[in-house]
């Protein structure tokens, strides 16, 4: 990729990943769904990794 500005899909992906991560972390921290706490942490981690990857692609 030679252009300095990322495609618009990265901005949407970044916003979606951050929203999903915050929702999953909220569920995991509060324990709202007791049997799915580990799954919520896993989803939060994957969403934060996706956010980091898209942020890295931007720079």
Automatic annotation (TrEMBL):
Source species of the chain: Brevifollis gellanilyticus
InterPro entries reported in the protein's UniProt record: TAT_signal (IPR006311)
Keywords: Membrane, Transmembrane, Transmembrane helix
Protein name (database record): Uncharacterized protein
Top-level division of the source organism's lineage: Bacteria
Transmembrane annotation, as ranges: 12-32, 38-57
């Amino acid at each position: 990729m030679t252009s300095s500005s990322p495609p618009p899909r990265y901005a949407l992906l970044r916003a979606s990943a951050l929203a999903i991560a915050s929702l999953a972390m909220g569920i995991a921290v509060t324990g709202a769904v007791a049997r799915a706490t580990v799954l919520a942490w896993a989803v939060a981690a994957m969403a934060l990794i996706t956010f980091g990857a898209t942020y890295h692609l931007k720079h």
